[in-house]
Fold this protein.
Amino acid sequence: MRWLVLLLFSALALAQPLPGNEPPPDLSPRVFEIAAKLRCPVCQGESIAESNAAISQESRRQIAEMLAAGKSEQEILDYFVARYGEWILYAPPKKGVNWLLWFAPALGVLIIALALWRYLVEARRREALLGIDDKTLEEIERRLEEE
Amino acid sequence: MTPGFLGNWSLVFAFLFTVIGLGLAIGAWWAKDARYIVAGRRAAALAFVATLVAFGALEWALLTDDFSIIYTAMNHSTKSPTWVKFATLWAALQGSILLWALFQSLFTYLASRKLRDYWMSPAVLGTLFLIQTFFFVVLLFITNPFLPVPNPPADGPGPNPLLQNHWMMAVHPVLMYLGFVGMSVPFAYAVAAMISRRYQTWVATTRWWTLTAWGFLTAAILAGGWWSYEVLGWGGYWAWDPVENASFIPWLLATAFVHTALVQERRGFLKTWNFAYITLAFAATILGTFLTRSGVIQSVHAFSEGAVGPTFLGFLLLVLAVGFGLLARVGSEIRDIGSMGLVSREGLLLGSSVVFATMAFVVVLGTLFPLVVEAVSGDQVSVGAPFFNFSFAPLAVVMLLLMGAGPLLPWGRLDDYSRRALVVMLAVLAAGTLAGLVIGWTFGVSLTVGLFAYNVVALYYQVARRVAVWRKKSEGWGSAFAAYLQHSRRSAGGLLVHFGVVLAALAIAFSQAYRVDAQKTLRVGEQATIAGVPVKLLDLKAYDQRYRFAVEAPVEIDGLGVARPQLRYYPTSRTPLAGPSVRYTLFKDYYLILQAFDRQNGEWATIRLVITPMVFWLWVAGVITLVGVLMIVLPGGLPKPKEAEVGVVT
């Protein structure tokens, strides 16, 4: 009786139930490591390792099968890229405009540090200017008035 | 009287009091008369009371199942437990904005009570009232939760199931809004300082408000991390999701400000930088709301989309225009003068500011890059954890290095005591890293262990130096330490925050590097090992909990008792939600997820086991950090003695 209720309920709740009532395959840690690099196509910003959506469970099964068939990590990632496009990768491929992204952190440090360095140099230069003796200051003022 | 009637009218009154307050602030500026400020304070109090009544009205509707207003009709269910009903107020857009407006009016009132500077007060109050006006305009004209529903339904769908899944959801958004709203006061002070041309004194007052907001943001980020950990069902606490990033950006900028503010207070440097940091930090709180509420970005945390996107974008641009418009004038008027050595406390504080600003830049860039690329070329890219981890790791190392040495060095120079300490610290860093490598940890983890030891030694030297001074005046080391805590509570709090962050870094390094994740199907009664851990599936049970239906698979973990992972079916959700079960131990968390089960005969269940080391210490680190923040921001305590009075140990 309990399982009848459960069956009815899950039939209602699962719009796309997994085919049949087969248990999903056992998955090794390696599967999840690879799955974490792939984006779940139907979720709101979760990886295939994180999401429990049907498509993610299916993708994890595929990864396990490909690993069992002796495929390398790169081959598996390529398979998903061929199927969904490069959007599926959480690490944008290092090419084209994406180089902008990968170099940006280094560029950011440089720009901010340079801005700070320039600021300090200027502040010191002004201090040095202030440090000039009164005679020179009077001379400057006199010349300014003459102009 | 109905909740809808009460709510609508109290919002109207709150709006009116806010506009009156704005008028009074302008009057105070115009007439240079402090009586306007006193009246403005009363307007702020009245606006807060009116908003509190509106908040009460919405709770009234939720707790009495009144479906005659749009918010309850769309987001409430009679079947929810009482705490969910109460927290439903901030489970969707309109209610969240109401909560935000409530906190904004509270902070406006609190800030109005702490005004000290007659020149700046009108502009501080005016800016806060202006921000508050924005929220009431949004509430009244765009997302009014009290709009009447012509044919009230008998029951509603209830809030998003993910939000009903954990009690933390009642806490996390509240803390987050307190943190966001808290940043409005520093912004108001920055604007006021720039308008009234008082560029130096605002920093000390603002640092207190910023630290308070920083504490709320820290607590909120931790609570969110814990919620993700216990609810999202994959055993992680941080995923570089756009919404997580949106809360992280103001946190980073506030952190940068807290450090450069010290430099300005002491040496008068970086006046323009501090204005920029505060403007950006406040703008970042609005940016986050815009990104998550407008639907431009996909996120697992974006629970309340709505028509407020363009309004928030407009407000964001206004904030940036005001902040940087005024800053342009400041930049043309003042030039800081002086020189500083980089190997000194101020030099390292500046270094930390570069690190935090770069971190904020990286998070903004990584979050917005996909949007920009799609807008320009139409291509879709994803930027996720691999990019952020790659860019944050080196920045974090530099941060941890600066963090140990910074507070140790005296202002302006390097003395013998800190030079000796630095030598020992660097030796400990090298020894710790080497020991880690010998044990066989990854380079990143070993380096973090070394940096942890380096920072602990640094803390020892800093505290020892101060306690030694008190030792001369007191009975023993114990009372010397107590005297130190009494007289230097704030700087001790700062050191405690640093220790919390270092501990968090250690926990993050281990949990990221040594997480193991595996999945296995077990028959009921079967004993097996998952990822090397012996487990036994005891049973498979189903519960009808009225507002949801739960399937539970009790699993006995060798030596750790029984974990009870669940799958939960909500009427409004097409797919079941995971109800993970975590067995916390000091050094390893065992995280179980029920992945699938035999729907016909109840004979097997598929269990996913995630083993993550050191996660427990992340939460400990969070608590330590918050205690440190409290030590800094709480009022009272004995004054800090002048160095000349007690002498310095060298």
User: Anything to note?
Assistant: Residues 269 and 336 of chain B are 6 Å apart (CA to CA).
